[in-house]
Specification:
By secondary structure, this protein is mainly α. It has helices spanning 3-27, 32-56, 60-65. It holds the Pfam family DUF7534.
Length: 66
């Protein structure tokens, strides 16, 4: 795993997690327990989406050269 690819994955995951917490804060009632219940599944979906965006997309020809 390259350092640049991992840092891209990490920054994308953090960005999606911040978006997940923001969405959960807007949608959920003003209760911290409910906020966590909404934010955790959204963060997991965000991490999966970040993985797919970072590692599943890209130049196919560069994979063939390796």
């Amino acid at each position: 795993m390259h350092s640049r690819t991992f840092s891209t994955f990490l920054s994308t995951t953090l960005l999606f997690s911040m978006v997940a917490v923001t969405i959960a804060a807007i949608v959920s009632p003003p209760d911290p327990f409910t906020l966590v219940l909404y934010a955790l599944p959204l963060s997991v979906v965000g991490a999966v989406a970040a993985y797919l965006l970072t590692y599943r997309t890209g130049d196919v020809s560069s994979r063939d050269r390796a």
